[in-house]
Write a structure and sequence with these properties.
Elements: H1 2-17, H2 23-53, H3 56-78, H4 83-99, H5 103-118, H6 123-143, H7 156-198, H8 204-221, E1 226-232, E2 237-244, E3 253-255, E4 269-270, H9 275-281, E5 287-291, E6 298-303, H10 310-339, H11 351-363, E7 370-377, H12 379-386, H13 388-405, E8 411-416, E9 419-424, H14 429-444, E10 447-449, E11 452-454, E12 457-464, H15 471-487, E13 493-495, H16 510-519, E14 522-531, E15 537-548, E16 552-554, H17 560-566, H18 569-584, E17 588-589, E18 592-593, E19 595-599, H19 602-606, H20 610-620, E20 628-633, H21 641-653, E21 656-662, H22 668-674, E22 679-682, H23 684-690, H24 694-709, E23 713-717, H25 722-731, E24 735-737, E25 745-746, H26 747-756
Parallel strand pairs: 12-13, 15-19, 19-20, 20-21, 21-22, 22-23, 23-24
Antiparallel strand pairs: 1-2, 1-6, 2-3, 4-5, 5-6, 7-9, 7-12, 8-9, 10-11, 14-15, 14-24, 14-25, 15-16, 17-18
Helix pairs in contact: 2-3, 2-5, 3-4, 4-5, 4-6, 5-6, 5-7, 6-7, 7-8, 7-10, 8-10, 10-24, 12-13, 13-14, 18-20, 23-24
């Protein structure tokens, strides 16, 4: 038992003597050691006097040692000071002065003790301690002549007192510098921990919990700082959802009068009525109010007895911005989960949701499960004569009519264009056919669009989904039946029969796109990426266009889905890559070469031909790898190991990687952590919103700060006016892209635009 106690005691002593690693801890350890050594070195000077003072001499010397080393050790071990320990230490100094030949000898201990004491507690506590030290020295000076073996009155001690005060002021200044540096380091560590912990987190509750934990940590490391989070609880009242830093009485609610009035510019504002906060905290001071970005109706209140330090406000704002970014990603995740299964035009289920429902139905299919394919007749005429806006309006009307004709257990989806799918459950063949005929009848009724009456029809194909039949087989059967209905005169219902398998299918739209690729009707336009400061064109983005003989110049949104579904996206992307490398080889701005950004789809990245094609294009046009940047969206590589392998290989080649539309997908932060990203392209929605919305501005700043810490270049997309440019410049974004400088134009127009520019060669940071 005794040996165990001894070993435990030795371990504690070793821990106590071990030199700490952090700056403040090392300084306190050194000053504590110097104070103890100075006291021990002073003892020999007192020993000759101790024996002559009488029996009280050894007692006074022992008291001097215990009353000083004890409080010093306690203070070092706990990091805290109390008036009682300060008073005890002062009595020890007085006892030491009493057993020394003169009080000036005790000064040798007083100065190291002052340095040690200066790195603890508040300035007010230190002032009380210094006053006690000076009083002890003066008392020893006055009492010295009356003590045996003491020198006469040492008035030189009075001259040393100003030096004691000056030394204390200098030591305290050093301590404040150390405290500030240590708090800054600890806050940075807390913010870095928060940022790392939020990567990939999409649950809003967990995000707020992590952010609040960081707030409590910042309050812990900032002496006196208190924080509350309040939420709108109705007229005149705020509910307190969190308190940090220690309160005399934690409030459950607060009056709404604590909130500043007027528009919120995102900056800290003084609380106009702090009375309730003063009562809760137990001290009176100015309180600050921060609106929490990305959290409407939520505020943080900050207070401290001597005012809230500016660096603490900066840390809290940075923490709130990180949380706001994570909350925006969380909201985007929820929205994308819905959007991934919803057609944005009609609000119906989309092809993905319909396919999933078909697969589920195929696994449990019993009698009475049917698939209907519905295609509008003469819809193209509406688009051509009245425009695409009228066509979209008609599709929404069609969707409403179809849903109105179905039962609660049925599913309707828009599969693309003017094509709809219906999954019927618990219906016999006659009932399924009756629903199909009812749809034909409803959709044949006239529709008024912008004052004009239009008529379309519908051809419906019907197929049974039976046990052992896959969802894709049922879809193909319903599709064949639908084309048979069109071939039989349109505006009717056709049930699938096996003989339809021998009927030649109509030429798919893919044939038209394939012909465009072969005939050179697919062209590449370019939009410059311009440095936010200095205005140099650092890169261009290659954007594909289809020069359609009837519909004119088509943007990617009009045909990329078709290219993906038909497998033409790979040859399409290869053609764009070849053309972009050929064009960019001759471009420069201010004497510096321009890079080219080329978008790559998941199918391209998964293709084994992609990396060899990149190597061949770079070699053919003598392009440095860093002049090619492959752009992906956040969802491009989520489910493709081949695509992820391709990105790793491209990074090894020196080819850059950019994440497009950053911030709109649920995987935004995960993408930065997982893949070798060089450039972050911030979605235009944040740029547009940042001009007027504090939440969007906070997200823009947070993305920029995070990218800078990761060594990434940031590009703001969709910058269209000087106000947006100023906002992204102030946020620290590296480059911009948008109509403010130039829309996407053909290669010859971009060549002319570059030739007209005279911008100093200032390279974009990488």
């Amino acid at each position: 038992m005794a040996s165990t106690v001894l070993r435990t005691s030795l371990r504690r002593v070793r821990r106590h003597l071990a030199r700490p690693t952090e700056l403040v801890g090392r300084t306190r350890w050194l000053f504590h050691l110097l104070a103890v050594l100075s006291l021990l070195l002073t003892v020999p000077a007192a020993i000759p006097v101790v024996g002559r003072v009488g029996p009280a001499g050894p007692v006074l010397l022992a008291w001097a040692l215990v009353a000083q080393i004890g409080p010093w050790t306690r203070r070092y071990a706990t990091g805290r000071v109390t008036p009682a320990l300060d008073a005890l230490e002062v009595t020890g100094l007085a006892a030491l002065a009493a057993v020394c030949p003169g009080p000036s000898v005790a000064l040798a201990t007083a100065f190291p003790a002052l340095w040690s004491r200066a790195v603890y507690g508040s300035g007010r506590q230190l002032a009380g301690y210094v006053t006690g030290v000076c009083a002890a020295l003066v008392t020893a000076m006055l009492a010295g002549p009356a003590l045996p073996e003491h020198a006469p009155l040492e008035t030189s001690v009075l001259g040393a007192l100003p030096i004691v005060v000056i030394t204390t002021v200098g030591a305290r200044h050093l301590a404040r510098v150390l405290f500030t540096a240590e708090r800054t380091r600890e806050r940075d560590a807390a913010l870095a921990t928060l940022g790392a912990g939020l990567i990939g987190v999409t649950d809003a509750v967990e995000i707020r919990q992590r952010a609040w934990a960081a707030t409590r940590e910042i309050c812990r490391m900032t002496p006196g700082l208190r924080a509350l989070v309040v939420v709108d609880a109705g007229p005149g009242s705020l509910q307190v959802t969190g308190c940090a830093g220690g309160f005399a009485e934690e409030p459950a609610d607060l009056p709404r009068t604590v909130l500043p009035v007027g528009p919120d510019d995102g900056l800290p504002r003084v609380v106009p009525d702090p009375a309730s906060l003063t009562e809760a905290a137990g001290f009176g001071a100015d309180w600050l109010c921060l609106a929490m970005p990305a959290s409407p109706g939520r505020w943080m209140l900050l207070g401290a007895p001597e005012g809230v330090p500016a660096d603490a406000v900066t840390a809290i704002r940075s923490m709130n911005n990180q949380a706001a970014l994570a909350l925006r990603v969380s909201a985007a995740h929820r929205d994308l989960a819905d959007l991934a299964l919803t057609d944005p035009l009609t609000g119906l289920a989309n092809r993905t949701a319909f396919t999933s429902a078909l697969d589920d139905a195929a696994r449990t299919a019993g009698p009475g499960t049917w698939v209907l394919f519905l295609d509008l007749d003469d819809f193209k005429r509406v688009n051509d004569e009245l425009g695409h806006a009228a066509g979209d309006q008609l599709l929404r009307r069609v969707a409403a009519r179809v849903v109105g004709a179905l039962r609660a257990q049925d599913l309707c989806a828009r599969l693309g264009g003017d094509e709809f799918g219906v999954l019927l459950r618990d219906a016999d063949e006659d009932e399924a056919a009756a629903i199909g005929h009812r749809l034909v009848e409803l959709l044949s009724a006239p529709v008024r669009l912008d004052g004009q009456v239009v008529r379309v029809g519908a051809s419906v194909g019907l197929a049974a989904l039976t046990a052992g039949t896959s969802g894709s087989d049922a879809v193909r059967a319903a599709d064949l039946a639908m084309y048979a209905a069109k071939g039989a005169g349109k505006n009717q219902v056709q049930a699938f029969t096996p003989d339809l398998l021998d009927t030649p299918a109509p030429a798919p739209p893919a044939a038209e796109l394939r012909a465009a690729l072969d005939d050179g009707d697919v062209v590449v336009h370019y939009q410059p990426v311009v440095a936010a400061h200095g205005g140099r064109c650092t890169a261009v983005e290659a954007l594909v266009r289809w020069s359609h003989p009837v519909r004119g110049l088509l943007s990617p949104g009009a045909f990329l889905d078709l290219a993906e579904r038909t497998g033409l996206v790979v040859p399409l992307g290869e053609q764009v890559l070849r053309q972009a490398c050929a064009d960019v080889a001759a471009w420069s701005d201010g004497g510096l070469p321009v890079a080219v950004h080329v978008n790559a789809s998941p199918s391209q990245l998964a293709s084994p031909r992609f990396v060899p094609l990149v190597r061949a294009c770079l070699a053919e046009h003598d392009l440095a790898p860093e002049r090619l940047v492959v752009e992906i969206t956040e969802s491009t590589v989520l489910d493709s190991a081949a695509a992820r392998s391709t990105l790793t290989t491209l990074d090894a080649l020196g080819v850059g990687l950019a994440v497009d539309d950053f911030g709109t997908g649920w995987s935004a932060l995960t993408t930065l952590r997982t893949y070798p990203v060089d450039v972050v392209k911030i979605d235009r929605s944040f740029v547009v919103g940042a001009v007027s919305e504090a939440a969007d501005l906070a997200v823009l700043e947070a993305v920029t700060q995070m990218a800078r810490r990761l060594g990434l270049t940031t590009v703001a997309e969709g910058v269209e006016d000087p106000a947006q440019l100023r906002v992204v410049q102030q946020a620290g974004v590296d480059a911009v892209q948008g109509y403010l400088h130039l829309p996407a134009v053909p290669a010859d127009e971009l060549t002319a635009w570059l030739a007209r520019r005279r911008v100093p060669a200032v390279p974009l940071p990488r």
